[in-house]
Design a protein that fits this description.
Length: 465
Amino acid sequence: MSADPISQLKAALGDAKVLTATDKIQDRRHDYWVVSHIRDRLGAQGPAPACVVRPATVADVQTVVKIATATGVPLIPFGLGSGVVGGVITSPNAILLDIGAMNATRSIDPENLLATFDAGKNGLEAEQEVAALGLTTGHWPQSIAVSSVGGWVATRASGQFSTAYGNIEDLIYSIEAVLPDGSLVTLGKAPRASAGPDLRHILMGSEGTLGVITGVTLSLRRAAEKQAVSAFAAPDMRTGFTFQRELVQRGWQPPVMRQYDVRESKRLHEAAKDCTVIMVHEGPAALVDVERAAAFELAASMGLTALPDTIVTHWLGHRNHVAGWDEILSRNIVADTVEISASWDKIAGIYDSATASVAQMPGCRAASAHSSHVYRSGLNLYFTFAIQKDSPEELEAAYFEAWKRIMTATADGGGSMSHHHGIGRVRREYMIRELGPEGASLLRTLKGALDPKGVMNPGVLIPDA
């Protein structure tokens, strides 16, 4: 990269906001994708960006985007770096736009149940601030303590309480963003509008390829009056799936509904011999009591047996505690989770096919799944794999092979290959099967119209023609 774009950035923003020193930019080379960590451990680190820009205002973001577009320099938006599908990998000629310094709470409106945040706002901090007023965002991704509000939108995220409260697209009131030409848009101004296509959805899941999200207004909820839990043992995954389907299709909506296969059930309670279904019931006290009673009645009629509530309360207290990549990779094991979704008639077949295929891989130590997000017409599955190899040099190939097997089983089984982590680089070439050639062409057309120079986060989300 020539010095010209950096000079322009420093002239427009000041030296303090444009970082070029090696020790200031190394930790922004990539996000939390395990493949990047494998390469780091092998000494095959990717290059640092040409510079890291830390804007303080929306106007700063507009300036950076205009300079990047005018000079044709790649621009990579960066939230808090919690992405796990390769959404951030820098190149030596790229500008990395670190939104983390834009972390203000702009307003909290208890009357209309709205809260507006800068895109770089830490998710847990946002939740804690509205909770102090007796409110909640209703959005609880496992990464809540390390992810940003803007990142939730850019990756089309989902939270653990989504079955009742919805996914990020159900919680968004409006989105503020800078488009690739530097113009500023605010999309959304009322609870609902019939004003043509909902343009907010262009930015949801766009992963920095169509613009830079700078602000988000969320529609809040009042904190639940009561919370209760329930847990059941199901003899097999299909029985558990049917139980969940019957419960939601009868109109009940426990915010948390999760089902674990036998292998993963043992992580919840060591004595598990069957699949485990856990639920959290929240809301008005009377509704919680009736919903929980209905769950027990349905479970008994279907042959599920009640389990101790302590299984769920333990999960609630430990649900976000996971081992770091270095701890796993140091044992020459590569592991990951892969979330997909499908309709009720297809989900069991995908579960069987994907777990069986991964289990056949040499060195497989785990091939399991649980469901974590439930809908009237289907549900999500969260596959977990762990593959052990003789040398660290073999881990990356094993990783991509496990992903290929799960993606293939999902596509062949008629499911959708991503539920909430986004596409990044690991799913990018599977987008043809997800969207079809015509759908992929439509996505490329949209990209070309908004970002004709292709400067916005190249190499992510959009498959090559």
